[in-house]
What we know:
By secondary structure, the protein is of the alpha+beta class. It has one domain: Glutaredoxin (3-Layer(aba) Sandwich). It has five helices and eight strands. The protein has helices at 2-15, 65-77, 99-108, 133-136, 168-179; strands spanning 29-30, 35-38, 43-45, 54-59, 83-87, 123-126, 144-148, 153-159. It has an eight-stranded mixed β-sheet with strand order 1-8-7-4-5-6-2-3, with helices on one face. Strand 7 (144-148) and strand 8 form a beta hairpin. Helix 2 (65-77) packs across helix 5. The longest helix has 14 residues, at 2-15. Residues 4-25 have low confidence and may be disordered.
Amino acid sequence: MSRVVTLLLTILIALAPLTGCTSESEEVIPLPEYNLLDHTNSTVEKEDYLGASYVIIFSAQWCGTPCHNNMHNLNTSVPGIEVLVVSTEYDYAPQGVSMVEWIDIVNEFDDDGDNIGQTLEYTFTRVIEGDDFAEQMDVFAPGTVIFVNSVGEEIQRHEGSFGPAGDESTLALIQEYWNQID
């Protein structure tokens, strides 16, 4: 009996430093100040979003289905959600796709030829060379989604596609992330 107790105590002592290694971090990360340009070249700043929770999607004009799925899944999962879409490109029209064309392409993504899909009321922006918000946030590729609380802190980060458009488990995951805010 004493060998069993000794063995169990040894195991517990050995594992004690590992507690919490598999749990999610409770640390919140304040967003840096940012200045972005929208499709009219107007400035969008962090202060514009303080006071309400929102989501930032780092995308690009040339990012197709995975980025479009994320945008539409967010809108389906949390109707009326405030979303700031940030192109990781400095150029107004990388690969020949202007920001205005990008907004149209994203909105037409789920139309299936019938023009009755979602119209996303998102703010589409791009980073400014020399003041690269994506780089400050350690985002180096499109497809990163950041959930932000009302005081401007990152609460949750998701990299890559959430999943197929309209998929129930995808929508549930987004709702779970959103519910962690505030």
